[in-house]
Amino acid sequence: MELAGREREIDDLVRLATEGEPGIIRLTGRPGVGKSALLRAAVKAVPPQRCTVWPVDLRGSARGAGLIDEIARALGLWSAADRDGAPETLATAVSTGRVLIAADHVDAVTEGHAALAALTERCPRLSVVLVSRRVDPSVAASGPGLALAPLAVPPEDATRVATLSAPSVQLFIRAAQRVQAALKLDDEEVAAIGEVCRLVGGLPLAIELAAARSRLLPLALLARQLGSRPGECADLDLLEGARIGIRDTLGATRALLTTDEDRLLARLAGFHGRFPLGAVLAVAEAPLGEVLDALERLIDLGLVQPSPGRDADPEFTLLPMVRSFALEHSDDASAPVARYLRELAAEAAAAHARLAHSDAVDRLRALRRDVAVELRRLVATDLVAATSLAVDAAPVLEGYAEGAEVGEALEAAIQSDVMARLDEHTRAGVWLWSSRTLALSPDGVQYSALISERWERGNALIDPRERPLLALQARMIAALNGTTTGDLRLSLQAAMEGLAIAREAALPAWTARLELWAAGAAHHTQGPEQAFALALAALERAQRIDDPASIAWAIMVISTMPRPTGPTSVPVPELEEALAVGERLGDPVLLSFAYAALAMREVRARRMAMAAYWCAQRLDLARRRGWWALSGISFADTVLIAGATSGDADADLTAARLVGVIRLDLDRLLRSMAPSSGPRFEAAVARIRARMGDHRFARAAAEGGMMSTPQAAALAVDWLRRHAGTPQRAAPAQAPLTPREGEVLQLLASGLTNKEIAGRLHLSVKTVMHHSVSIYRKLAVRGRAEATAYAYRNRLITDRGPTG
After folding, report:
1. Which parts of the chain have pLDDT scores under 50?
2. CATH T-level topology, domain 7-147
3. Following DSSP, what letter does each residue of 712-750 receive, concatenated?
4. For domain 739-802, which architecture applies?
5. Which of 31, 87, 93, 684 lies 20 to 30 Å from 643, alpha-carbon distance?
6. In sequence order, what are the beta bridge partners of 102?
């Protein structure tokens, strides 16, 4: 949904969140008024120096669930030790830092508002924005808030100038121009637009839906049709006193749909978050050409919105109100989606075990919100099915917030009698992946013995000769667990065992991945030359088999080593490429290590402002997910950065306290960093001690020794944010349309169906849809009608065909 006329409200919300007293802030308004769009704009406008923002979306939460529980789940802060410990886990995560949790779609979560208020009292620097349709009547409306009203509409006797200046009219015109190449704005048309805006009560969603229909109907007729519909006082109606509500607007739009289009909309309503094109085709259960044509029609009418997804599999979303409306007209939209998720998870798990590139892995990650919702449903209704889905999803969703739901499902299986009913392969997966989810949980560091015990039970069920892929997964889990919990001996031993299995089984992808772990070990034990050779071989192998994740890991490992003089046999990409892979995959574990590598690179180059930026990024990710064991390296990096900041008493005090925080664990931390980090760290500490004096330094270090890891993280993030630079990333240039895309655009504008375009250009129907979505992304439009209007306005096509 677009924003128009909301500048003041955005400023008000940012001011409440950053300048007001911390606590609960309520953003309320009826459905369709633009609360989510306003929240997103406000979150982007919050200066990072003021506070750290953690956005969460609570769509799909179970009715009656606790608010703190759902926020903790959305952040991935699952307490493995205490399944009812969400308040403590969340309180530990926010600790003393200035944090803003922006929680959207909280209507389903009716319990726990009082507990959240108590939490904000315990955490005096925590603010929480709760976005809902209305304030729960059981909760006192205390604290600041912002009630979002519909956009102002022109009065019936308004002049042309006054009508055009109304925010609701401006939004309608902007939305209508997106679907019409030449929107007439004579007096009659302007009057009709004003009437439409009055009829829908200035509601942005209704305005956009009406504007999408303006391409099909004259504006005067559109106003008459809307005005003839009786209003209803139901949950979907948005404005008391208006002649129609959102239900009427959606109903009028639905009346334009064919039976096939209406059926597809009902099926898509089974998804809770973004869904890729492959998922659309799977749940539609209809001929390909018909599905794609129906999907484009839904996009044109504003019922489905393209999302900026991957080129390989375009993604889409339904606005929550559209989804609610569609579900009212569906017998069981969730059944096809649930069936598809289970099949997809099994396919993705098989591909991930081979470390093979697969659309199934990408799709499952895109659908991870739906996986979490389905897991929660199955845990309550069919624990065997829940366990199978959790084991399949675990390797794909490792490190994501939704991994919390995987961990809960696996824990439920372990604590029940269901284990006896599982086959040996699934039982092994339960033990192995529960050890991994436990290691990644906020309290996992405390349970090293339990993590090792579960891993051993799973590994005992595996014969490497019969199941080499599962044996390799087990070794990688052990290696990652060792890094997470600080047991580097276990990590290196598991990597070497895995490398031997991978080489014997002739599995190049696994060989490349485990060579990287072996290179890390060699860097500490055999020197940089041997380590660099191993890492370079892994990079070359990963490039040969086109494994983006392994390429990214290789870049990061190599970045920690001194390069030999002279050219290497394989060009080594820059760290930014590894970061781009992590961002594209959305892999939080990979991103965490990329941030660390970038911070260390900037420290070595003495670009301390940028080192502070990347170090803060990693610490904030660790704090948001409760990965406390990974924070120590960032504390050491912060000391290095502060030590290079001369004449700053605050920098010295922060660094000295952090030295106290990590002093007892310093040997382990330095062993997990590049060997050159140790001398640099000792030199930085010596400079800080000399500037402060022994007595002041010792006192500050003693204060740090009394801090918890979350408190130290908050201290470090606050200091780093104040001293951080901004990465100079070039704005992505708008990619030109390819000649083929130009041909597709011309035929789209001519009104041909996807099947007809495919026949004209001798392409598959699915390829035509990929070209279409690529065109929408490049032109920043939402569907065929908007693309056509944009193309004619900007002379990308003419009546004679596409321009060069």
Report:
1. 137-141, 230-243, 804
2. Rossmann fold (3.40.50)
3. HHHHHHHHHHHH-----PPPPP-PPPPHHHHHHHHHHHT
4. Orthogonal Bundle (1.10)
5. 93
6. 55, 129
